[in-house]
Specification:
The protein is 74% helix and 1% strand. By secondary structure, the protein is mainly alpha-helical. The protein has a two-stranded antiparallel sheet. It is globular and about 55 Å long. The two termini are 37 Å apart.
């Protein structure tokens, strides 16, 4: 079995580019929303990307893509993936791209909580529980100060709640993948299930919600090209290649840059205003996620300091 390497300059550069792309995703969706609804953008990109991924699928010998062994788990994965991006699309209608990307990236906290009860190897340490507490305090802080009108949730609060729930759906997708037979297959197979399911489920939803009008402008075409070729295909193929060749926990550290890029791009391209409570809450959320994810690195450092 080929040994995975520690992250080098090449991997670091690629991860930096990937985090920029992932942080730009919600911003591009919101910019193009004047010509094509976010849910329609996501549905189309899922269908086109699925066609691109299909020839690259690597199946176990003697197993079909839609065999009973994987089909049920694939359908569950597709549903959760679609629910995540439906919530992202709706969140962008009510709140900022900055809020959406930060709250979406709370997913690692929910993954840690979900797997804690299933696997002994995933049991949370006291340090990790403290990280989860910090992150949840941060989530609460980001919601403080939102306007309410006559006891009703404001649009921004509703959008933020949807973005947070999208993070939960992303976490459930990860947990479903970990607990099902799909954990044994090549990533291109699971990616295909998610993309094709996203197209099949989100396109009818776009019609049901009356969000199918498309103005075929340069902005629309540019957004679809970005999401199909760069976001849903190229960036994920590069990510899978990195996971195959480098240590996953080393790569995961870089993912915390994505929300920061998302906030920066939201301010630069959408002129979004960042409230103080949101900055404070985001800082706490990111700190909490770092503590949970880097526990294996932090604990030896603390012991070394004590000695």
């Amino acid at each position: 079995m080929e040994m995975r390497k520690a992250v080098d300059a090449k991997a670091s550069g690629l991860m930096l580019v990937l985090c920029m792309i992932w942080g730009l995703q919600q911003v591009v969706l919101k910019i193009a929303a004047v010509d094509i609804a976010p849910i329609m953008q996501i549905a189309i990109r899922c269908g086109l990307s699925a066609l691109m991924v299909y020839p690259l699928i690597k199946l176990p010998q003697g197993v079909g893509l839609f065999s009973k062994k994987y089909l049920l788990a694939g359908m569950g994965l597709a549903f959760l993936f679609s629910a995540e991006f439906f919530l992202v699309a709706e969140a962008l209608r009510f709140t900022s791209a900055s809020h959406t990307v930060v709250l979406l990236y709370t997913a690692p906290i929910f993954v840690a909580l979900g797997l804690n009860w299933k696997f002994a190897s995933e049991r949370l340490s006291a340090l990790q529980w403290s990280g989860i507490f910090i992150a949840f305090v941060g989530i609460v802080v980001t919601f403080i100060g939102k306007d309410t009108q006559t006891g009703q949730f404001s649009k921004v609060l509703l959008g933020d709640a949807m973005a947070l729930l999208a993070g939960v759906m992303w976490a459930l997708t990860t947990i479903c993948l970990r607990l099902s037979k799909l954990s044994e297959v090549h990533p291109t197979q699971t990616l295909f299930y998610q993309l094709m399911g996203g197209f099949i489920l989100l396109m009818p939803l776009a019609f049901a919600l009356g969000q199918t009008e498309i103005r075929w402008t340069l902005l629309t075409l540019s957004s679809l090209a970005f999401h199909t070729l760069i976001m849903s295909f190229a960036s994920l193929m590069i990510w899978f290649w990195l996971l195959k060749n480098y240590l996953a926990n080393h790569l995961g550290v870089f993912s915390f840059l994505t929300p920061l890029f998302g906030i920066a791009f939201g301010v630069i391209f959408l002129d979004e205003k960042i409230e103080f409570n949101f900055i404070l809450g985001t800082t706490l959320v990111m700190l909490g996620i770092l503590v949970v994810s880097l526990q294996g690195w932090i604990t030896p450092k603390i012991k070394a300091l004590k000695n």
